[in-house]
């Protein structure tokens, strides 16, 4: 089939797709199907896929497997069978000096251009210098008289690769991406790419991947910018799809098309968490999820996200009351489960905790009660949830937030037990905000609030001791979260934080808790990163160290 071309314009399809890392055969089949759809239904001349679309991103040490090259070669042979549309896609490919993060341009079975990524990020969550060698040459190819330059992801954050493409004759720039989400990232991308467009007076097509991959969330949000830096097309965040944009061949101007509205901060965080959980559970093959529903706000938010991600039929909530569980907590948990329509059960743990205590009585003889007895409650609950997981094939969702994970306000093998901690990178103050936001969405749709108002209004408590409140041993959450943000995300010292107006003893106490609980976090379940710096890929601290707090 020959390409369909208007006498006046060229049509590009930006394939903002959700790939499964390592599934080269499945990713190839998806690319072929979407290329044919773009050619036959959307009448596109060129389809653009994201960075490393054949393998998914990030493939990490799968790139070191000896069989990688053979699988990539097989995939390319299949892609060669698609004619009538020019395909631009990313792949890992062995070059003279080592493995390269490359892009191919394939037309009617023939490779007409090849580009190798210049700038290999080795910061935050990126580790590309472990795997790839950098390219140095510009790549420009012709498509119906239009000269098109290629760049890959990090390249667009630096002026040199785009300048090289312009010097080689590019009249339009394509940028293939696997750019992960954090709060405010979409606006940062737009600003940086607009600067490149204005610098060189080149229109830019920015194609990003979408989907959850372990602790990373890729939000899509692909776009097209005029040479002036003005927006010509904005694809939505967190939605897979094919988004088209035309260029007028006479004026070299992009023709305005889809203009999706980027969500505000709480909406973007919530959608990122939903997408991350859905992809983790579905791609991993779990039948559903189970969580302990305590009647508190953290488990309430986790339950809401789970239902929005998977549907009520794939979610189980379990209340596990003990002597210190308030009646109001039992009522609120049951009420939320009923509102969301999930399977709900109550499994009292008193007999099991007392059995543990009895067994340990001789060992603990002469020793007073302390947090050990509190932790026994949490660990009993963890045992029950893991048993349900084993029996039903359901993934356990821990419900701890970033504030708790930071200061160790969590129990190893207890409330930390599970496989995917969906609010692990969400500070406590944001937990409240997300619950209010989700309730507002429900109200606007004429539905009942998802999280009972009383759950939001009650003082947070682990309910592991009589009349226990979180703020008995921690600063108020607005204060705690700001100290943590400065220390964990911004690397400020105790001196810096105290100088900003925070009480010195409080700061040192919080920072000490962060530092001594690294061993807990290293054993925590993976969870989606939504901040500039979460506990995981981009914050790797030694467990045993002699770092002195305050220096």
From TrEMBL:
CDD domains from the UniProt entry: GAT_Gln-NAD-synth, NAD_synthase
Q: Which UniProt keywords apply?
A: ATP-binding, Ligase, NAD, Nucleotide-binding
An example Pfam family from this entry, by short name, is: NAD_synthase
Pathway membership, UniProt: Cofactor biosynthesis; NAD(+) biosynthesis; NAD(+) from deamido-NAD(+) (L-Gln route): step 1/1
An annotated GO BP: NAD+ biosynthetic process
For whether the record's keyword set contains Ligase, the answer is yes
InterPro entries (alphabetical): C-N_Hydrolase, C-N_Hydrolase_sf, Gln-dep_NAD_synthase, NAD/GMP_synthase, NAD_synthase, Rossmann-like_a/b/a_fold
The UniProt entry, under SUPFAM superfamilies, shows: Adenine nucleotide alpha hydrolases-like, Carbon-nitrogen hydrolase
Q: Which GO terms describe its cellular component?
A: cytoplasm
Q: What class of enzyme is it?
A: ligase
Q: What terms describe the molecular function in GO for this protein?
A: ATP binding; glutaminase activity; NAD+ synthase (glutamine-hydrolyzing) activity; NAD+ synthase activity
Which of this chain's residues are annotated to bind L-glutamine? 179, 185
Annotated PANTHER family: GLUTAMINE-DEPENDENT NAD(+) SYNTHETASE, NH 3 /GLUTAMINE-DEPENDENT NAD + SYNTHETASE
Q: What is this protein called?
A: Glutamine-dependent NAD(+) synthetase
Q: Which gene encodes it?
A: nadE
């Amino acid at each position: 089939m020959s390409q369909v071309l208007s006498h006046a314009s060229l049509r590009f399809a930006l394939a903002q797709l959700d790939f499964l890392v390592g599934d080269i055969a499945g990713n190839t089949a998806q690319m072929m199907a979407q290329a044919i759809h773009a050619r036959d239904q959307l009448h596109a001349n060129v389809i653009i896929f994201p960075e490393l679309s054949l393998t998914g991103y990030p493939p990490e040490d799968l790139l070191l497997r000896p069989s990688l090259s053979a699988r990539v070669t097989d995939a390319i042979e299949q892609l060669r069978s698609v004619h009538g549309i020019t395909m631009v896609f990313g792949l890992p490919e062995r070059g003279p000096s080592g493995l390269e993060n490359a892009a191919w341009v394939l037309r009617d079975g023939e490779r007409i251009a090849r580009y190798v990524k210049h700038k290999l990020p080795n910061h935050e969550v990126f580790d590309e210098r472990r795997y790839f060698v950098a390219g140095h040459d510009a790549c420009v190819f012709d498509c119906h008289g239009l000269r098109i330059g290629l760049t890959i992801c990090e390249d667009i954050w630096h002026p040199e690769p785009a300048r090289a493409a312009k010097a080689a004759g590019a009249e339009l720039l394509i940028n293939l991406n696997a750019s992960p989400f954090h709060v405010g990232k979409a606006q940062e991308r737009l600003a940086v790419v607009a600067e490149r467009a204005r610098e060189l007076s080149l229109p830019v097509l920015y194609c990003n991947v979408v989907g959850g991959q372990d602790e990373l969330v890729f939000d899509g949000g692909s776009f097209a910018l005029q040479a002036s830096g003005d927006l010509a097309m904005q694809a939505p965040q967190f939605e897979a799809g094919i988004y088209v944009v035309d260029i007028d061949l006479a004026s070299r101007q992009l023709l305005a098309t889809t203009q999706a509205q980027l969500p505000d901060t709480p909406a973007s965080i919530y959608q990122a968490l939903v997408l991350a959980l859905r992809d983790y559970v579905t791609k991993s093959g779990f039948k559903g999820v189970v969580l302990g529903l305590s009647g508190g706000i953290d488990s309430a938010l986790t339950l809401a996200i789970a239902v929005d991600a998977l549907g009520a039929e794939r979610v189980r909530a379990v209340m596990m009351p003990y002597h210190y569980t308030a009646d109001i907590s039992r009522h609120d948990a049951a009420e939320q489960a009923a509102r969301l329509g999930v399977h709900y059960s109550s499994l009292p743990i008193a007999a099991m905790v007392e059995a543990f205590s009895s067994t340990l009585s001789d060992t603990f003889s002469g020793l007073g009660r302390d947090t050990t007895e509190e932790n026994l409650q949490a660990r009993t609950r963890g045992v029950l949830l893991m048993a349900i997981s084993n029996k039903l094939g359901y993934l356990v969702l821990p419900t701890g937030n970033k504030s708790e994970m930071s200061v160790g306000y969590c129990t190893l093998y207890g409330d930390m037990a599970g496989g995917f901690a969906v609010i692990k990178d969400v500070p406590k103050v944001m937990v409240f905000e997300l619950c209010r936001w989700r309730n507002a969405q429900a109200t606007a749709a004429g539905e009942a609030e998802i999280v009972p108002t009383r759950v939001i209004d009650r003082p947070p408590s682990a309910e592991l001791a009589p009349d226990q409140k979180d703020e008995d041993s921690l600063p108020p959450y607005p204060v705690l979260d700001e100290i943590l943000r400065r220390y964990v995300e911004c690397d400020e010292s105790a001196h810096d934080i105290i100088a900003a107006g925070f009480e010195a003893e409080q700061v040192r106490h919080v920072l000490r808790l962060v530092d001594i609980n690294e061993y807990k976090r290293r054993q925590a379940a993976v969870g989606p990163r939504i901040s500039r710096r979460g506990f995981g890929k981009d914050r790797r601290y030694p467990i045993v160290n002699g770092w002195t707090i305050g220096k």
